[in-house]
Amino acid sequence: MLGKKMFFIPAFAALFACAEPKYVIAQETKRENAFQSQKATECELRFRNSGYCLLWQWEKMPTSTEPGSLTFKIVRANALDDSPVPVNLDLAPALVLWMPSMGHGSSPTIVEQIDTGTYRAKNVFFIMPGDWELRFQIKDGSTIHDEAVVSLII
Amino acid sequence: MMRPWFLLLSSLVFAPQSSWAAACCGGGFAAPSIIAGDEKAQLTTSYSYTDVVIDYVDSRGIWRQWDEHQKVQTLKIEGAHVIADRWQAGFRLPILQRSRINESHSGLGDLSFSFGYEYLPDWSYNPIRPKGIGYLHLTLPTGKSRAESEIGGLDCFGNGFWAIGIGTLLTKTLGRYDTFGSIEVHRSLPKAVSTRQVQGTLEPGFGGQFGLGAGYNLRSFRIGGSVTWIYEDPVKIHGPSPSNGLPERYATAVISLSFLASQEWAGTLSYTDQTVFGDPINTSLGRTVAFQLQRRWNR
Q: At B155, phi and psi to the nearest 5?
């Protein structure tokens, strides 16, 4: 009899246990002066196939109601001194916002070229807080030739 | 003459479970349309309004909240009909509208069909043995899946996969009290996708729900409550940008007040809260108010 009670009481308590909210305040993932790297060989983020270095920084942080923008450069190492050399791509880069845990994206971004190997992504808007990926892709239509992925928490 | 509170239980146990689905971005598996009582047929229409109060709960159980939340309105028609002595068939047709700030999208959710068999009949009114209905539940992907959405899920209104489920509903009336329990396992099938954001194959897995509920009946009224725990396997993405996804888990608590206007007509007002029970992960949580009107035809 006691054995049954010892099983059923904890099982009932576990089943009907109230949810325990653990809130966090959304933290700004500020990223500044990313373009001041002196050597492309010390690059933190690379495209998977080409090995090109990706440098990026927020231009305007998105909020829960307003889209933001970011700028990015795709560079390679100079053969003489490893200094960053902008790469002139044949294909247009794209930026996809993806939430891996929920399995969905967000609003489409607009990428425009500013200079050789230098781009601005506008309409960067996260539909909800959480863990997101910035997927910088080099695409030909729907075919992805190369990709560099940045993980962030919004 | 059947007791009125038995009539209320018989067709309203599944009523509040219209809010099983995860609050955000489609997802979730629809509840089947089942006749739990002795009716020949029933037709139900319902309207619900959901406020997504917790935008995201991560895999560590951390709750995140913004000032602006998604709102979901759902209009649903569902029906069921006895097709042989202990066999029944049903359908469910939801239409949803999702809104956030100034953006709003509406469309058809996942259409589903169910086939039920009363394997534990209540002919003898046994004081202990419950009535049991087993069912097969087929979901058509008429609603867009989360991954297919190119605007962050505002335009996805269902699970978005072909899915087949098997489950059972057990009910028991004890005087003025009634109880029910339900359990279901389902399997969603892979599909190929090609959008600007994702290319490849989406591979969902198994999912399931387990629910318990009870009610108290007084004259033509029934006040009831239930809790349903829901689990969904991760949706893996195979393609140029692969992803393993993460499992989703949450619990839906419902309180409801039903009124039996006549032998043919009943109405239910319900409040659903996904923030009360369970240990949610990788999901959004909402609160829902719903009204349901039901017409039934007795045998």
A: -105, 20
Residue B239 to chain A, least CA–CA distance (Å): 10
- Provide the CATH number for the domain around residue A122: 2.60.40
Nearest by Cα to A129 from A23, A21, A18, A19 = A23
Tell me the per-residue pLDDT of A70-102, one tens digit each, with 9 for 90 and over.
999 999 988 888 888 999 888 989 999 999 999
Are B276 and A17 a contacting pair at CB < 8 A?
no
Written as one string, the DSSP assignment of A71-134 is: EEEEEEE-TTT--EEE---SS-EEEEEEETTTTEE-SPPEEEEEETTEEEEEEE--SSSSEEEE
CATH classification of the domain holding B14: 2.40.160.40
Contacts of A19 in chain B (CB under 8 A): 251, 275-280
Q: How far is A79 from chain B (nearest CA, A)?
A: 30
**pTM, 2 dp:** 0.86
Q: Is residue A6 part of a domain?
A: no
Inside any domain, residue A2: no
**What ipTM was reported for this prediction?**
0.81
Question: Which of A17, A64, A147 shows the shortest C-beta gap to B66?
Answer: A64
Domain containing B93 equals: 4-298
- pLDDT one-digit tens code per residue, B162-184: 999 999 999 998 889 999 999 99
Given pLDDT bands bounded at 50, 70 and 90, which one contains residue B1?
A: very low
Token pair belonging to B24: 């955000």
Domain with A63 in it: 27-153
**Angstrom distance (rounded) from CA A12 to CA B121:** 28
Kindly determine whether residue B149 and residue A104, on different chains, have CB atoms separated by under 8 Å.
yes
Q: Considering only CB atoms, which residues of chain A are within 8 Å of chain B?
A: 15-24, 26, 64-65, 94, 96, 98, 100-108, 126-131, 135, 137, 142-144, 147, 149
